[in-house]
Amino acid sequence: MSAKLYDEIPSLDLADFTGGDAEKKAAFVQTLGEAYNTIGFVAIKNHGLTDEMTTKLYSVIKEFFTLSDVTKQQYEIPELAGQRGYIGKGKEHAKGRKTGDLKEFYHIGQLVTDGDKIASEYPDNIWPKELPEMEAIGIHVYKTLEAAGIKMLQAIALYLGLDEHYFDNKAHNGNSILRPIHYFPIETPDEVPADAVRAAEHGDINLITLLMGASADGLQVLRRDNKWIPITALPDQIIVNVGDMLSRHTNNKLKSTIHRVVNPPKAQMKTSRFSIPFFMHPRSDMDLTVLENCIDQDSPKLYDDITAGDFLQQRLAEIGLKKK
């Protein structure tokens, strides 16, 4: 493992991987692998999202979250364990905690268009009738980030010594989620629980997360020397980090690094913060058994065998979205 401690996350250009230059591609794979072997996060440009797409989606989700709680709750379906539609304020908490995060969010899931039988596993998306434009832009951004995610997984596969397309069929029509989040204003900060934060420290469940730029500061990642460092991206970048499924599959060779969204100073808690992560999941039957080439004398196998679907169900219960 590299001994390097990053003061900021590395910036990479996805065009170096996709552009056809073998040297640039190899350098991208190596730099990405080193970052994921240590800090678990990178910033990426040339990911396919345009400014117009980003602006349009942020505009519509901000409009949705200004609707009354009663209106938003029409789109909350408890039986779906938070997998589609609206999830209300404080409903989700970090694994190992009981205090809910100071956020509300909306889930857009996979749209299967090629006749794949896996469509029967997925509930239909839920679209608010007040904002008919949400569907088209939501699906457009979903598919754009999914395509970028496939390229990132191809680079990861090469770094791991696997076939470049190892993840392709595992992620095709995967159970991925686009999550517009509203960290809502706190009018009376002294009245919320002392340990309540916008998003408590956690690792993501999935293979990788692709995060569109957030509307305010606050995202931090925990370095392995236990120092929190801020995560920032330039306007043309997205953040891509390792999730727990990928960390597990690689026996922690790739790091699902703990991160959080901290509260702003009290004087600024009356303001909103928005962000839109894309949680890239594989198909539910993907075998997350630790890869043989990630096990050796110095790195014994750390995890029991499990499928991605079973792992997801465990974690949904642990974070409060599914009844145990």
The rough form would be described as globular
Q: Largest sheet, described in full?
A: 9 strands, mixed
The count of strands amounts to 13
SS strand fraction: 15-25%
What is the H-and-E element order? Answer: EHHEHHEEHHEEEEEEEHEEH
Name the helicity range: 25-40%
Q: How far apart are the termini?
A: 38 Å
Give the structural class.
alpha+beta
Q: Mean of the pLDDT scores?
A: 90
Number of helices: 8
Q: What does this entry look like structurally?
A:
The protein is an alpha+beta fold and 324 residues long. Helix content is 27%, strand content 17%. The protein contains eight helices and 13 strands. Strands 1, 2, 3, 4, 5, 6, 8, 11 and 13 form a nine-stranded mixed β-sheet that branches. A hairpin with a 5-residue loop joins strand 9 (219-222) and strand 10 (228-230). Helix 2 crosses helix 5 (134-159) and helix 3 (51-65) packs across helix 5. The longest helix is centred in the middle third of the chain and has 26 residues, at 134-159. The protein starts with 10 loop residues before the first strand and ends in a 6-residue tail after the last helix. The relative contact order is 0.17. The mean pLDDT is 90.
